[in-house]
């Protein structure tokens, strides 16, 4: 029958998806994004085929986990674009992105790889970063040779450091880097 509305997912399929997301969140927080997907499926009480039926790739699962968190992050970035202090807005954005990317060990690498499933999020993250960098530069609050690519690399490096060292040490290094980028 053509023109029929698509069928809504069954209630058990929706429950499986939600359980998979909850268990993936717990496993990725504990073991990182390279953790066993079979382990995620087992913890959710479903077969690995069910996991792949909902999330055909590891990156698709990561993207689904990040969906709500990305919306919150992007709204924060959009609000920072209106902040009266462009240098502070940029620094706040960098710190927010670093915390976001450090939620799961290995997430910074997944974001840096810019996999197809994460492309839209990466483009949005980059656009907000560029807007905040341009605004800080126009206000004279940023060293003239600092680029959006520099800021993006700093965010990935700081997220990696946060996942591999103590958050306090990673934040200290981030503060030092920001102090070097932000004009006097």
Describe this structure in words.
By secondary structure, the chain is mainly alpha-helical. It has helices at 11-31, 37-44, 48-54, 58-80, 86-101, 107-113, 119-138, 148-164, 167-181. The protein is elongated. The relative contact order is 0.11. The model has no long low-confidence stretch (mean pLDDT 87).
Structural class: mainly alpha
Instruction: State Rg.
Output: 19 Å
Largest sheet: none
Strand content: under 5%
**Uncertain runs with pLDDT below 50, 5 residues or more?**
none
Give helix and strand order, one letter per element, not per position: HHHHHHHHH
Mean pLDDT reading: 87
Distance between the termini: 67 Å
Residue share in helix: over 70%
Tell me, briefly, the overall form. elongated
Total beta strands: 0
**What's the helix count?**
9
Q: Summarize this, please?
A:
Keywords: DNA-binding, Transcription, Transcription regulation. The chain is an all-alpha fold.
Give me the secondary-structure topology.
Elements: H1 11-31, H2 37-44, H3 48-54, H4 58-80, H5 86-101, H6 107-113, H7 119-138, H8 148-164, H9 167-181
Helix pairs in contact: 1-2, 4-5, 4-7, 5-7, 5-8, 6-8, 7-8, 8-9
Organism: Kitasatospora phosalacinea
Domain HTH tetR-type: 14-73
Protein name: TetR family transcriptional regulator
List keywords for this structure.
mainly alpha; transcription; TetR family transcriptional regulator; DNA-binding
